[in-house]
Recover the amino acids of this structure.
C-alpha cells in the first residue's frame, strides 16, 4: 500500500495559517463565503479578481488555484456545488479528487480549512478523510521503477472539526486500503498462510482479540468435508481462520463476519476458461472485507463481541482434486453432491458458516463472497447482491449501505429456489438446475448452513474489483468493498 496517512487537526485559524497551499471550499455562487472575503483582503483584492477572470462560481468539480503571498504561497478554491446536494458520497469524491490533484502537483503537504468544507459535521468529516486517503491509494508493491508516485504525505486541517472523526476516517480509509492490498497481491504470494499470518498479527497486538488457525488435519477431523473436498486438490495448505473479539459484555452474543478466502479459483476439475483467469486471485476478496473490518475494529474498539471467520484455500485441478459427482458431508451433517467443482465458494462457506453458527450461537451472521459470475449479469459493477433470512437484519444492512454509500440490492430467497438445490443422490447439490438465477441458488445453498440464525449473504463478485467510479475507487484492482458498510453496521448495532 502506498497512500496518505498523516492527517491532523491544527489549532491555528485559517486566517493565520502559513502554508505552501491553503485549501478552501466554496459552494455554488460563492454566497457568504467568509474565507474568500478574508483571503481576498489578505491578497489585496487579487482573489476576487482571479475569480472574475476565470468565471469561477463554485460548481462541483471546478477549482481555482491562485498565487498567494508569503503567508500562503498558493490558495486552492474547491467548487463544492449546490449546498443542498452536499452529502457524504459527494464529499468523499471531492476529497479523493483533491488528494489526487495535490499528488499530481507534487505537493507534500496541504493545509485545509475545515469550516468552508462543512467539516463541522462528523459524517461529512469522516467521508472527507476517507476520500483523501482512498484517492491516493495505489498498489506499487511489485514495481521496481516508477515507484513513489505518492508525494502527498501530510495534511493539516484547521477549524471547528472533531478530531475523533478525523481519526475514524483515517482508520477506515487505511482499513479499506489494507483490504485492497490483500486483494491485489498475486496468488503466489497471498496464500491462505499469508492471510492467517496477517490475522494473527492484528490479533496479537490487540488485547481482547484471540486468533485460532485451523489446519487441513483439523478441518478433516472436525468433519468439514465440504471445505476439505475443495482444499484437497491444492498443494498450498488451506486454513480456517477465526478471530474472537471481546469488546462487549461477556454474555452478549457476538456478531459473526464470515469471508470466502479462495486465494485462487481455477475452477478445479471443472476448469475455468483461460481468459481473465488471472482475476481469480481476487476470489479471496470476501475474506479481505473481513480482514479490513478486523483491522478497523482492532483500532476503533467498538463495545460488542465479534467473530471474524475465514475459510481460505486454493481451488486447483490435479490428481488429488475432487471430482464432479463426489459426495461430501458438511459440518452440520448435510450431504452434498459436488456437480461442479467450480461452485467451490459455497462449499467452503457451508462449513465455516455451520461451524461458527454452532460454536458461537451468534446474534447475526454476515458473509461476504465473490460467489457467482451471475451477480455481474444481474447488477454489473454497481451494487453487491444481498440475500438473507431476516427482515430486521436486512434493514440494518440497508441502513449501513446508505451510510457508507456502498450499494446493495436484495434478491429474493423464496423456497422455490431451495428446491433447485435438492440433490439426486445426496441432501443437496452444489449448483442449481441450470444457469438461471445463479446468484440466488448459491444464496439458497448457503442458507442451509445457518439454521434460524439471522443471516445476510453479500455477493461481491461484481463490486470487489471492477468499479472505477466514484473517484475514490481505484483505477485498477481491488476496491475493499464492504469494509465501510460493515463498520457502519457495527457502529449502529443495538
Ligand atoms: N469465484 C467464482 C465466481 C466469480 C466468477 C466471481 C467471475 C467473479 C467473477 C465462483 O467460484 C464460481 O466459479 N462460480 C460459478 C458457479 C457455477 C459453476 C454454478 C460461476 O459463477 O460461474
Ligand atoms: Mg469457482
Ligand atoms: Zn470462486
Amino acid at each position: 500500500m502506498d497512500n496518505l496517512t498523516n492527517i491532523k487537526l491544527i489549532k491555528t485559524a485559517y486566517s493565520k495559517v502559513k502554508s505552501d497551499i491553503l485549501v478552501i471550499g466554496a459552494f455554488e455562487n460563492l454566497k457568504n463565503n467568509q474565507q474568500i472575503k478574508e483571503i481576498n483582503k489578505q491578497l489585496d483584492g487579487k482573489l476576487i479578481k482571479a475569480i472574475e477572470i476565470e468565471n469561477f462560481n463554485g460548481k462541483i468539480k471546478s477549482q481555482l488555484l491562485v498565487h498567494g503571498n508569503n503567508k500562503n504561497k498558493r490558495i486552492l478554491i474547491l467548487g463544492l456545488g449546490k449546498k443542498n446536494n452536499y452529502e457524504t458520497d459527494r464529499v468523499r469524491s471531492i476529497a479523493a479528487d483533491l488528494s489526487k490533484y495535490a499528488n499530481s502537483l507534487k505537493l507534500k503537504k496541504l493545509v485545509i480549512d475545515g469550516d468552508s468544507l462543512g467539516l463541522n459535521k462528523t459524517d461529512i468529516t469522516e467521508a472527507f478523510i476517507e476520500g483523501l486517503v482512498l484517492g491516493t491509494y495505489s498498489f506499487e508493491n511489485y514495481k521496481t521503477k516508477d515507484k513513489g508516485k505518492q508525494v502527498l504525505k501530510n495534511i493539516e486541517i484547521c477549524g471547528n472539526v472533531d478530531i475523533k472523526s478525523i481519526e475514524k476516517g483515517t482508520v477506515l480509509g487505511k482499513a479499506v486500503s489494507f483490504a485492497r492490498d490483500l486483494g491485489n497481491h498475486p496468488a503466489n504470494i497471498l496464500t491462505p498462510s499469508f492471510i492467517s499470518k496477517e490475522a494473527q498479527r492484528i490479533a496479537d497486538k490487540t488485547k481482547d482479540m484471540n486468533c485460532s488457525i485451523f489446519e487441513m488435519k483439523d478441518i478433516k477431523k472436525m468433519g468439514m468435508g465440504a471445505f476439505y473436498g475443495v482444499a484437497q486438490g491444492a498443494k498450498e495448505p488451506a486454513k480456517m481462520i477465526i478471530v474472537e473479539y471481546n469488546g462487549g459484555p461477556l454474555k452478549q452474543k457476538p456478531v459473526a463476519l464470515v469471508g470466502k478466502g479462495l486465494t485462487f479459483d481455477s475452477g478445479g476439475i471443472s476448469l475455468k476458461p483461460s481468459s481473465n483467469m488471472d482475476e481469480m486471485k481476487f476470489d479471496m476478496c470476501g475474506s479481505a472485507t473481513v480482514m479490513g473490518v478486523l483491522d478497523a475494529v482492532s483500532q476503533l474498539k467498538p463495545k460488542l463481541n465479534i467473530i471474524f471467520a475465514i475459510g481460505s484455500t486454493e481451488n486447483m485441478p490435479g490428481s488429488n482434486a475432487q471430482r464432479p459427482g463426489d459426495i461430501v458431508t458438511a459440518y452440520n451433517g448435510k450431504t452434498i453432491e459436488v456437480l461442479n467443482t467450480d461452485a467451490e465458494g459455497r462449499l467452503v462457506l457451508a462449513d465455516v458458516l455451520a461451524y461458527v453458527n454452532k460454536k458461537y450461537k451468534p446474534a447475526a451472521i454476515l458473509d461476504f463472497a465473490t460467489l457467482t459470475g451471475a451477480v455481474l449479469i444481474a447488477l454489473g459493477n454497481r451494487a453487491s447482491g444481498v440475500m438473507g433470512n431476516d427482515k430486521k437484519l436486512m434493514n440494518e444492512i440497508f441502513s449501513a449501505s446508505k451510510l457508507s454509500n456502498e450499494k446493495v440490492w436484495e434478491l429474493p430467497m423464496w423456497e422455490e429456489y431451495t428446491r433447485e438445490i435438492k440433490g439426486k443422490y445426496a441432501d443437496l447439490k452444489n449448483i442449481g438446475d441450470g444457469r438461471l438465477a445463479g446468484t440466488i441458488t448459491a444464496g439458497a445453498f448457503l442458507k442451509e448452513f445457518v439454521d434460524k440464525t439471522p443471516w445476510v449473504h453479500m455477493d461481491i463478485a461484481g463490486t470487489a474489483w471492477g468499479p472505477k467510479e466514484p473517484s475514490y475507487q481505484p483505477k485498477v484492482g481491488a476496491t475493499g468493498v464492504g469494509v465501510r458498510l460493515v463498520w457502519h453496521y457495527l457502529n449502529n448495532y443495538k
